[in-house]
Amino acid sequence: MKKIPCIAALLLGLAFVFFGLNFFAHFVVVPSPPAGTPAAAFLGAMYGSGYLALVKVLEILGGILLIVPRTRVLGLILIGAILFNIACVHQFFFGGIKDPTLIGLIVLALVVTWSKLCALWCVNTCCSSGCCDSGKEGSSCCSSEKPASSGCCGGNK
User: Fold this and answer.
1) Which residue of 76, 117, 127, 137 is most buried, as measured by CB atoms within 10 A?
2) Exposed/middle/buried for residue 8 (C-beta within 10 Å: 0-12, 13-18, 19+)
């Protein structure tokens, strides 16, 4: 059961590295949206401005970070943002999230996210002096009550 998140992270990372490299090397032909549609205009602007090339470089970087266990949380944050934007483009321009590849990538990302929930929570609540005590009202972000050596989530990662 512990291997499922590792396999999901590996598959998700490899998929994003592959699709990112496909932009530059053209392994697989990606169909274009019909001309004159808002989706074609949007993707044309992304291609023309060079913004899509930056996104593809970040996809490759995020995929590599996902594959390496030590940097998996950082890769998940990066890939999560990109995957959210891909899902939004499909929802708003293509009439819903119907692509099986996209659905599979979302499921893989959710599996990896669930396995790294504590670490992701700590990214949100920790600061340089230790874990934050966000459960109490009126507490500051950096609580000096917990020593920095205790680590996030009680030292469990």
Assistant:
1) 76
2) buried
User: Per-domain residue ranges for the chain?
Assistant: 3-115, 127-157
Which residue matches tokens 């990109």? 82
User: pLDDT tens across 117-133, in order?
Assistant: 888 888 777 655 455 44
3-state SS, residue 1: coil
pTM here is 0.77
Residue 79, token pair as written in the block: 């890939």
> Which residue has tokens 């959710």?
110
CA atoms of 107 and 32, how far apart (whole Å): 25
Place of tokens 């659905």: 103
Single-letter code of the amino acid located at 46: M
